[in-house]
Amino acid sequence: MMLRALTSPRPWIVIGAVICGTAVALGAYGWHDLENDAEARAVFMLAVQYQMWHGLALFVVAWRTCENGKPASIAAVAGACFTAGVLLFSGNLYVFALTGDVPVIGAAPMGGITFMTGWALVGVSAVLKTRKAVP
C-alpha cells in the first residue's frame, strides 16, 4: 500500500519542495552565521549543495512516477534513496560543520552511495518499457 502511494508524483513533489526550501534556509544560515569559520562554512555549504541537487532530483522522480507499472515503482525507490541520502549525507555534514563531531560514523559515505543508487534507478526506470494502462 505504501509503495503504491509513492508511485504517485504528489508525494515526491511535496518532499522535493520541502527539501529544496530547507536547503535555501540552511544555505542562508550557513553563509551568514558561519562567516568566521571558513572550514565549517565550506562543509556546511557542501551539505546544502547536495541537499538542493537531490531535492531537485525528486522532481525527476515525480516525473518518472507518472509512468505505469515497474518504471514508477523503480522511480519511487530512487526517491527513497535520494531522501535517505539527504538525511545521511547532508545531515551528517551539517552536524559536523556545527559541532566538529561526526554524529554517525559512515553515514556520509552511505548517503553518497544512496545518492548514486538513486541516480542508477532513475536511469533504469527510464529504460524500462511502460505498461499500457488497462481501460
Which SSEs are present, and which pair or pack?
Blueprint (H helix, E strand, L loop, with lengths): L1 H5 L2 H25 L4 H27 L5 H30 L7 H21 L8
Would you kindly provide a written description of the structure presented here, covering whatever features stand out?
The chain has 135 residues and is mostly helical. It has one domain. It contains 5 helices and no strands. It has helices spanning 2-6, 9-33, 38-64, 70-99, 107-127. It is elongated.
- Main beta sheet, described? none
Count of all domains: 1
Residue share in helix: over 70%
Using DSSP, what is the number of strands? 0
What integer value in Å does the Rg equal? 17 Å
Our estimate of the beta-strand percent is under 5%
Class by helix and strand content?
mainly alpha
Overall geometry: elongated
String of helices and strands = HHHHH
Beginning-to-end CA distance, first to last residue: 22 Å
Mean pLDDT: 92
Poorly predicted residue ranges: none
**Number of helical segments?**
5
Task: Give a quick set of tags describing it.
135 residues, mainly alpha, 5 helices
Structure summarized in a few sentences:
This protein has 135 residues and is mostly helical. It contains five helices and no strands.
